[in-house]
Amino acid sequence: MSKRLRAGSLRSRTVKRAGAGAALGLLACTAAWVHAVDGVSGATEARAYRSDDRPPAAQEGRVVRARERDPLQGLSGVSERTVARIPAESRQLVLVTGHGRDSSHATAALYTRPAAGADWVLAESWPARNGAKGWSADRRYGDLTSPEGVFSLSDAGGLLPKPPGTRLPYDRSRAFVASGHGVEGESLEGSFDYVIAIDFNRRRGTSPLDPVKPEGAAKGGNIWLHVDHDGPSQGCVGISKEAMARLLTVLDPAAKPVIAMGPRGF
After folding, report:
1. Quick one: average pLDDT of 46-72?
2. 173-195 per-position pLDDT tens digit
3. pLDDT digits over 203-227, tens only?
């Protein structure tokens, strides 16, 4: 082959190799550019994800507020002042709300709550009777009013045997006999078949029959929940015999039961 032909062939191969190298370089550059663009896009998406990784309310600029607690804690017919007097550890409550300050008609309701300090839940309610002259925050012996306030319930008793399941200390005695007639002339027979002492001017941990009045005889005493005799009382709260039996089977000293009683809104 002549020198001229060999030289031409050599130049042709050199040009081809240069072209291939340039093409490879262009491909590498393109790949790097694509990778860089993808990297920027991924970082942007990551930042966007992180910036949106919040509760929807926060993203929308809303303020999430906790539900405000009912100041009456699920009760009705009472004031916040009375609710504040109910011990936080109590989990059983008998709420007696009179129809008026001077009325002898009322409603008794049993409330419970699952834990100390939680809101109250209504369990049952019954018609009730209270003092013939209504309610008094400063009750005196013989004034025919029921004492207004919050009191513990710690002792029970009655003429009849205690209902099965009774957990309050129960004093069965023949002394639980109501004789004579009520304020309106009604018979009192059977009124003390079941009683639960209301801890007003009395010593806790004793029979409801205990005569001692720690705050003096002038305030009166022996204020009980007892069987209704279809008339007003001299100061006690009367509910049906069935309701009394029900309370005796439900009230539990471990639940620190109390009674709150007074005219509606007290």
Report:
1. 52
2. 999 998 889 999 999 999 999 99
3. 999 999 999 999 999 999 999 999 9
Residue 98 has pLDDT above 90, yes or no: yes
Nearest by Cα to 150 from 235, 37, 259: 259
pLDDT value of residue 12: 40
Q: Token digits for 85?
A: 């007097």
The dihedral formed by the CA atoms of 17, 18, 19 and 22, expressed in degrees to the nearest 10: 120
Q: Where are the domains of the chain?
A: 3-59, 80-263
In 3D space, the residue among 227, 237, 239, 240 whose CA is nearest the CA of residue 131 turns out to be 237
Rounded mean pLDDT of the chain? 82
Distance (Å, rounded) from C-alpha 190 to C-alpha 41? Answer: 88
Average pLDDT over residues 137-145: 96
The β-bridge partners of 129 are: 105, 238
Please state the three-class secondary structure of the chain as a single string.
Answer: CCHHHHHHHHHHHHHHHHHHHHHHHHHHHHHHHHHHHHHHHHHHHHHHHHHHCCCHHHHCCCCCCCCCCCCCCCCCCCCHHHHHHCCCCCCEEEEEEECCCCCCEEEEEEEECCCCCCCCEEEEEEEEECECCCEECCCCCCCCCEECEEEEEEEEEECCCCCCCCCCCEEECCCCCCCCECCCCCECCCCCCCEEEECCCCCCCCCCCCCCCCCCHHHCCCCEEEECCCCCECCCEEECHHHHHHHHHHCCHHHCCEEEEEECCC
